[in-house]
Amino acid sequence: MPPPRIPSSLLASFSSLSLSAARPRPAATIPKCTIPAVPKPTVRFFSATSASQNYLAPKAGESRKSRKGRCRVPTGGSMRGTTVVWGDYGLRMRDHDRRISAQQLKIAEDTIRKRLRGMKFRMYMRIAANIGVYTSGNDVRMGKGKGSFDRWTARVAVSKIIFEIQGDLHEQVVRDAFRLAGNKLPGLYEFVKKGDPPVMGVTKLANGITEADLKRPRKLLPLEQTAGRIPAAANQPSAPL
């Protein structure tokens, strides 16, 4: 059988090939200076990652239904969460501990942002609505389980900071924004600034009051007030011999 015949065009192509150590340079090259530098995008238009955790609802939900419970009472003299940490101004509860729903917190946040619209500021939330509330309805008889999920709430202790604001803002403007937000929330609130003294219970550590004085089991009275309570020795009748 005769060998296959190679076309002349293919033979001419192979004959034009040559081996060389130097890499051939392309004839037409585009200089780098003419290519515009495309900035790297900082925000992706599409992301498969999950959204950041929201303070109005826990990310993982609840594995077991939460009980009603009670708010934290700092019986040991804790002052945690009563001062401004990250911002310049804060909104602090001052009357009594209670539960605040996620809807009420969202309304208060929207009220503050609406009042400070157009201004540069940053808002911090010091509490999170991570406690579930379950109800059975008004026309359901007692028993047969805890009920179905109703809303998310936050247990807020007394003298707890709820919102903080940081930015180049006038103090009176922030006071007005917190006043409007306090009207939307249950309870009484006060305006605090960074550097204000902490609060133990409902007592502020100011005007000479220290933490040791509040933790003392017996109140320290002045000497004049203590001496006035002691009856004089001359007024007491002498015992018969």
From TrEMBL:
<dbReference type="InterPro" id="IPR016180">
    <property type="entry name" value="Ribosomal_uL16_dom"/>
</dbReference>
<dbReference type="GO" id="GO:0003735">
    <property type="term" value="F:structural constituent of ribosome"/>
</dbReference>
<dbReference type="InterPro" id="IPR000114">
    <property type="entry name" value="Ribosomal_uL16_bact-type"/>
</dbReference>
<comment type="similarity">
    <text>Belongs to the universal ribosomal protein uL16 family.</text>
</comment>
<dbReference type="GO" id="GO:0032543">
    <property type="term" value="P:mitochondrial translation"/>
</dbReference>
<keyword id="KW-0687">Ribonucleoprotein</keyword>
<dbReference type="InterPro" id="IPR020798">
    <property type="entry name" value="Ribosomal_uL16_CS"/>
</dbReference>
<dbReference type="GO" id="GO:0005762">
    <property type="term" value="C:mitochondrial large ribosomal subunit"/>
</dbReference>
<feature type="region of interest" description="Disordered">
    <location>
        <begin position="57"/>
        <end position="76"/>
    </location>
</feature>
<feature type="signal peptide">
    <location>
        <begin position="1"/>
        <end position="22"/>
    </location>
</feature>
<dbReference type="GO" id="GO:0019843">
    <property type="term" value="F:rRNA binding"/>
</dbReference>
<dbReference type="InterPro" id="IPR047873">
    <property type="entry name" value="Ribosomal_uL16"/>
</dbReference>
<dbReference type="InterPro" id="IPR036920">
    <property type="entry name" value="Ribosomal_uL16_sf"/>
</dbReference>
<keyword id="KW-0732">Signal</keyword>
<dbReference type="Pfam" id="PF00252">
    <property type="entry name" value="Ribosomal_L16"/>
</dbReference>
<keyword id="KW-0689">Ribosomal protein</keyword>
<protein>
    <submittedName>
        <fullName>Mitochondrial ribosomal large subunit component</fullName>
    </submittedName>
</protein>
